[in-house]
Amino acid sequence: MRAYPILALILWLIPLAGVAADLCATDALDRRVCLPGPAGRVVSLSPGTTELLFSAGAGASVLAVSAWSDYPSAARDLPRVGDSQRLDLEAIVALQPDLVVAWTDGNSRAQLDRISALGIPVFWLAPRQFQAIASAVETLGILTGHASVARQRAARFQRELDSLRARFGDAPPVRVFYQVWDEPLMTVNGKELISKAIALCGGVNVFADSPRLVPRVSREAVIAADPQAILTAGPGGDSANGLAPWQAFPGLAAVESGNLFALTPDLLQRPTLRMLDGTRELCQTLEVARDHL
């Protein structure tokens, strides 16, 4: 008779074991990725995914990264497995990862489909909203077994962004040209996350309506738009130098007002939790620009 309670207990535990072991999430390509358990061996294929994995608490599980993965400092010492142009697929496979995390705007789908065909799960990311950054951290936390830490960090990110939004959302608008690159001259449209940061701070992207995410523009088009502030965050100490050519146009509102600003590199360029710091700096910079108008 005692066999029945034991059998009932076994039947009750079987579905619970399946739930505990089954970790699934939908990635940026709308693909359902399922793991038999938390990923303990992870390969990151972009600087952004590397940052997000460390933010999710999974830094110790990252075996290798892509070129230019320089944050946090611990990522600099990890082996490299290629860049956005070319990945070392043999090296990736040899690492026997439980999970590969890729970036839709940089990594080759054809190359990574070959990785997937070998049974190695590939999870694609492409945060286009602040909420998507927080969600990416939470999802990576779940897939790597660090859900609690990831959830706390994502929540803090959202909470502090909401504080910035409440503080600057009703500020007087400032027309902004955001310079991604100087030669050729490039900017962002309204769908790019940097533009959303500008809007959160009360700025108006003068090229928000461009059909391309990162369009090339002419100096004549910028002059015609007559921005009240020109911002850039180019690599290293070259940021300010990239703004110098605008001094040749003293009639431009941004030049006349002294509103040419070089922001801290990387904080806005990568859609990671550090965008909070970049957005905070951006909001403070636009406050200075308002004082100059």
UniProtKB/TrEMBL annotation:
GO terms for biological process: cellular response to iron ion. Residues 41-290 form the Fe/B12 periplasmic-binding domain. Residues 1-20 form the signal peptide. InterPro entries: ABC_Transporter_SBP, ABC_transptr_periplasmic_BD, Vit_B12_bind_prot. It holds the Pfam family Peripla_BP_2. The keyword Nucleotide-binding does not apply. Gene3D superfamilies: Nitrogenase molybdenum iron protein domain. Keywords: Signal. PANTHER family: MOLYBDATE-BINDING PROTEIN MOLA, VITAMIN B12-BINDING PROTEIN. This is Substrate-binding periplasmic (PBP) ABC transporter protein. It comes from Marinobacter santoriniensis NKSG1.
